[in-house]
């Protein structure tokens, strides 16, 4: 009788100790999971910043390298082809904004630096938004068109006001001509370089792997 009781007590003690141990382990497991999630989030943020910085630096460098055709009323800014990237990798939009601002410093015109960079930001954020949907030829064409149209209007106005010394609404013909020149330059880059790259690159494994690596 005393032996049975002793066995029962021992079993109860073991069960209670096991329960306490399990309860003590739960917070530790949750803490570890939370720690891993925080670490993953930090790593993703670091990768996003790295991608944005690389793309922004590439934009600024390419623009300055091809300075003779990258500035002025008639320009073909080849670096604008990089504006397709936010369609696939949204974090690069802010890198392109910074890269454009740096590149526009060479103009020495504050309006060009501010509004030119904001035009690029508006265009690439539009591309990023379109990229969140289904990737089709139409959405890719619209992403390129956003860059063409927004830059034509904004940069056309900047050139008219800041460089020609004319008011946009007082001299609409001057604005229209400047906007047309920018439109043609942007269209040449986005439709002849950007759009084909949007169709070609996703077919390549290295590009898919790269996008996956830097994805948020």
Query: Portion of residues in helices?
Result: over 70%
Q: How many separate structural domains?
A: 1
Number of strands: 0
The major beta sheet can be summarized as: none
CATH architecture verdict: Orthogonal Bundle
- List the total number of helices: 8
Proportion of strand residues: under 5%
Under CATH, the topology can be stated as: Arp2/3 complex 21 kDa subunit ARPC3
Large-scale geometry: globular
Report the C-alpha radius of gyration, rounded: 28 Å
In the CATH scheme, the class would be Mainly Alpha
Distance between the termini: 67 Å
Which key phrases capture this entry?
216 residues, mainly alpha, 0% strand
Give a structural overview:
The model is unreliable at 2-9 (pLDDT under 50). The protein is built from 8 helices and no strands. It is an all-alpha fold and 216 residues long. It has a single domain, classed as Arp2/3 complex 21 kDa subunit ARPC3, CATH 1.10.1760. The protein is globular. The chain has helices spanning 2-65, 67-70, 85-88, 92-104, 110-131, 137-163, 172-200, 205-214.
């Amino acid at each position: 009788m005393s032996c049975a009781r002793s066995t029962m007590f021992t079993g109860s003690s073991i069960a209670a100790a096991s329960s306490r141990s399990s309860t003590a382990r739960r917070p530790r497991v949750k803490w570890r999971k939370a720690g891993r999630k925080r670490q993953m989030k930090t790593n993703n943020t670091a990768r996003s910043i790295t991608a944005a910085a690389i793309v922004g630096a590439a934009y600024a460098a390419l623009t300055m390298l091809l300075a003779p055709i990258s500035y002025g009323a008639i320009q073909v800014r080849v670096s604008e082809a990089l504006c397709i990237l936010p369609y696939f990798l949204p974090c690069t939009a802010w890198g392109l904004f910074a890269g454009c601002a740096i590149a526009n410093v060479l103009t020495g015109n504050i309006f060009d630096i501010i509004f030119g960079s904001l035009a690029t930001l508006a265009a690439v954020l539009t591309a990023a938004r379109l990229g969140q949907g289904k990737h089709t030829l139409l959405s890719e064409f619209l992403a390129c068109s956003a860059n063409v149209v927004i830059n034509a209007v904004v940069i056309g106005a900047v050139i008219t006001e800041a460089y020609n010394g004319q008011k946009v609404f007082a001299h609409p013909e001057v604005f229209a001509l400047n906007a047309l020149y920018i439109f043609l330059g942007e269209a040449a880059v986005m439709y002849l370089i950007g759009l084909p790259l949007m169709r070609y690159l996703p077919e390549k494994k290295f590009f898919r792997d790269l996008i996956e690596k830097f994805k948020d």
